[in-house]
Amino acid sequence: MARELTAIALAMACACGRSDPPSATPPEAKPLAGKAFYRVDAAPAAACAHGAICEAHLVLTALGTYHVNKDYPFKFVADAAATPVDGEGRFALGDARHGTLTVTFTPAAQGPARLVGTFKLSVCNDDTCEIETPRIELAVPVS
Amino acid sequence: MRITTALLTVAALAFAGSPSRADRSEATSPVIGKTAPDFTLKDLTGKEVKLASFKGKVVVLEWFNPGCPFVKRSHTVGSLVDTAKRHMKDGVVWLAVNSGSAGKQGADAAMNGEAARSWSIPNPILRDETGSVGKAYGATNTPNMFVIDKTGTVVYAGAIDNSPDGEGKSPQGGKLINYVDAALDDVATGRAVKTAVTRPYGCSVKYGS
C-alpha cells in the first residue's frame, strides 16, 4: 500500500443535489492525505441515495507558508476498479490556502460506494512549488 | 439614475476584485515584437555564450530550474521531451537560462548538470545568477519560453504548452498544443506567429531580489 494511501474514511462528503459550498472537516480530524505542507480532508458527510447524482468534496488546505497553486489543473483520477465517477472533478479555489475538488458519481446500489483514485494537486510558497499525487480511498454511505 | 450608476459601480468594483477575474488576466510580455535583449552568460562549463553571436539564426530561450517539479515533468513526460533535440537538428539554437540566485532552489551548478544528464538535455544551460537577463525578458516562471526569429525579434513568449500540469495530460480545450513547436513552424514557413503570447505556468523564477 502506498505511503500516502489513507484509511477508508467512512464519513465522506456526499451531497446529493447539494449546491452549498462545503466546509472542511475540523483540522484535528485525521486527514485523508497530507504532508507537512498540505492536507486533504473530506467535507462533512451528507445523504447520498442510490440512483441519484451524489457529490463528494475533497478539501485541500495548504499549510505553513504554502498556498494553493491556482493555475494547476486539479483533478481526481479514479481507479478503474472503483466506483465510476463523472469526469475528473471540478476544482473551486476558496481563499489562498483552500480549495475544494468536487467529484460527482451516481451509486447504483445501497451500501458503501468506494471512491478510490489519485488527487493531483499543487501548492507553492515563495521558494518552491510542489506537485503531489496522494491516493485517496473513501467509502461513501449510500442509502 | 444615480442609484443605478452607484449599483453598477459597486458591481464593477466587486467583479474587478474577485480572484476569478485575476485568473482571466490576459497574457502579456514586455519583449514580444521587440529586439531580443542581448546578453552574455556562462554555461555550466564556464564557457561564455553571447546571444548576438547567433545573429541570423532562430533561437529558443527556455527558463529553467531543475528543482521545479513542472520543469522536471516537462522534461521527463511532457512537452519538453526531445523538443530541443528535434529543433536543433533543424538549425535552431536552444538555450536554457537559469536565473535562480545562489542558494535558491535549482541554482546549484551540480544539480543543473545532473538534470542535463538524466533528462538528456542537448543544449547549454546558462547561469544568470544576478537575474538581469531574466528580468530583461520578463521571465516569470519555469518553464517560460521565448522564440527569437532570424531578425532578432522576439516572436513568441509564454508557456511551453497549454497543459498547466507540465505533463501534457490536462490540455485546456482538450487538445494539447506545444506553443513553441507551433511558433517555430510559423517562423520556418515565413508566417506570422499565430499565438505570440501565452501565460506561462510553473514555478516562479527564483530571483535573488
Could you tell me how far the N terminus lies from the C terminus of chain A, measured between alpha carbons in angstroms? 29 Å
User: What share of residues of chain A is helical?
Assistant: under 10%
Label the structural class of chain A: mainly beta
Main β-sheet, spatial strand arrangement of chain B: 2-1-5-4-3-7-8
How many individual domains of chain A? Answer: 1
Biggest interface, which chains? A-B, 15 and 20 residues
Our measurement of the CA-to-CA distance between the termini of chain B, rounded to an integer number of angstroms, reads 49 Å
Question: Measured on Cα atoms, how large is the radius of gyration of chain A?
Answer: 14 Å
Give the rounded overall mean pLDDT of chain A. Answer: 83
Task: Provide a descriptive summary of the structure in words.
The complex is a heterodimer of chains A (143) and B (209). Mean pLDDT of chain A is 83; it is low at 1-21. Chain A has strands at 33-35, 38-42, 54-62, 67-68, 75-78, 86-93, 98-105, 113-124, 129-132, 135-140. Chain A has a 5-stranded antiparallel beta sheet, with no helix packed on it. In chain A, strands 4, 5, 8, 9 and 10 form a 5-stranded antiparallel beta sheet that branches. Chain A has a single domain (33-140), classed as Sandwich (Immunoglobulin-like), CATH 2.60.40. In chain A, strand 1 and strand 2 (38-42) form a beta hairpin. Chain A is elongated. Chain A is mainly beta and 143 residues long. Chain B is an alpha+beta fold. Chain B has one domain (27-204): Glutaredoxin. In chain B, the strands form 2 sheets. In chain B, strands 2-1-5-4-3-7-8 form a 7-stranded mixed beta sheet. In chain B, strands 6-9 form a two-stranded antiparallel ribbon. In chain B, a hairpin with a 5-residue loop joins strand 7 (144-148) and strand 8 (154-158). The relative contact order of chain B is 0.20. The model of chain B is unreliable at 1-24 (pLDDT under 50). The chains are: A mainly beta (143), B alpha+beta (209).
